[in-house]
């Protein structure tokens, strides 16, 4: 019996070795991110903004399907953080999703290493801080998951891949906004709109009068070339957006 058991064990190892040897493991990529306040003035007022490695928006996580992503996040803020990876499926890894309930917040001054595989996914996603209104102060950035060469895209390769973040922005700090919400105070209209961290794209009732025509765009995942062109008019500049993939959460 004993020698039969041993035989099974070595056979098992042989199979594992063969599978690894033939197909290789999926690549690992490592990142070190420090989350800290930086001072910028996107709307002309100096503000404490949440930067990642000193950048706002944070660095783009540019990876390829099936890669294993390891991100050591150091929290240099004065309060706990969690970063969540919006749209990343985290199959069998839900505790890496960076939301309260599945993850403990990273205390101020501490670090935590997220590790997840972007398994069988392609497209554009984003990460952001999931706690305490911090997202209103930044801490977000883009995620690009490129296709593997063995799975070609069903359309021509775009000439460029440009990430555009359009966000409401308040000149009040996220802590003040948080306090207002806790006290039942209406946040009111945001002070402006930022595009990729830059302003001012202010609400301007003079240049955008009431009754202006608008269009509703439905972007459906899986229909990359159909009905997914949109236009946004920001201070006379037209931005064309093509949605290649979106996610429903
Ligand atoms: C992402 O990385 C790929 C190589 O893996 C590169 O070809 C591509 O230009 C990068 N995209 C961006 C937006 O940095
Ligand atoms: C914190 O960072 C250090 C230095 O990079 C690293 O060795 C350690 O594993 C990290 N700890 C966690 C919990 O991620």
TrEMBL record:
<keyword id="KW-0732">Signal</keyword>
<dbReference type="InterPro" id="IPR011707">
    <property type="entry name" value="Cu-oxidase-like_N"/>
</dbReference>
<feature type="signal peptide">
    <location>
        <begin position="1"/>
        <end position="24"/>
    </location>
</feature>
<dbReference type="Pfam" id="PF00394">
    <property type="entry name" value="Cu-oxidase"/>
</dbReference>
<dbReference type="InterPro" id="IPR001117">
    <property type="entry name" value="Cu-oxidase_2nd"/>
</dbReference>
<dbReference type="Pfam" id="PF07732">
    <property type="entry name" value="Cu-oxidase_3"/>
</dbReference>
<dbReference type="InterPro" id="IPR045087">
    <property type="entry name" value="Cu-oxidase_fam"/>
</dbReference>
<protein>
    <recommendedName>
        <fullName>Monocopper oxidase-like protein SKU5</fullName>
    </recommendedName>
</protein>
<dbReference type="InterPro" id="IPR034273">
    <property type="entry name" value="CuRO_1_AAO-like"/>
</dbReference>
<feature type="domain" description="Plastocyanin-like">
    <location>
        <begin position="161"/>
        <end position="223"/>
    </location>
</feature>
<feature type="domain" description="Plastocyanin-like">
    <location>
        <begin position="35"/>
        <end position="148"/>
    </location>
</feature>
<dbReference type="InterPro" id="IPR008972">
    <property type="entry name" value="Cupredoxin"/>
</dbReference>
<comment type="similarity">
    <text>Belongs to the multicopper oxidase family.</text>
</comment>
């Amino acid at each position: 019996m004993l020698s039969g058991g041993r035989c099974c064990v070595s056979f098992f190892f042989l199979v594992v070795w063969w599978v690894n040897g033939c197909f290789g493991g999926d690549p690992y990529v490592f990142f070190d991110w420090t989350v800290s306040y930086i001072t910028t003035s996107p709307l002309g007022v100096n503000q404490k903004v949440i930067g990642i490695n000193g950048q706002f928006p944070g660095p783009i996580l540019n990876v390829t399907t099936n890669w294993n992503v390891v991100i050591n996040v150091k929290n240099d803020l004065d309060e706990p953080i969690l970063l969540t990876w919006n749209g990343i499926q985290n199959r069998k890894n839900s505790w890496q999703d960076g939301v309260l309930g599945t993850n403990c917040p990273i205390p101020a001054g501490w670090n935590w290493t997220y590790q997840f595989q972007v398994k069988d996914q392609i497209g554009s996603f984003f990460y952001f801080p999931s706690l305490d209104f911090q997202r209103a102060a930044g801490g977000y950035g883009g995620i690009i998951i490129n296709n593997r060469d063995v799975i070609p895209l069903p359309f021509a390769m775009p000439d460029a891949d440009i990430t555009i973040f359009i966000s409401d922005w308040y000149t009040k700090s996220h802590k003040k906004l948080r306090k207002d919400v806790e006290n039942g105070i209406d946040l009111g209209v945001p002070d402006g709109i930022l595009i990729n961290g830059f302003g001012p794209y202010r609400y301007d009732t003079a240049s955008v009068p009431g009754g202006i025509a608008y269009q509703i765009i439905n972007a459906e995942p899986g229909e990359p070339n159909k009905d997914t062109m949109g236009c946004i008019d920001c201070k006379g500049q037209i931005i064309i957006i093509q949605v290649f993939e979106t996610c429903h959460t």
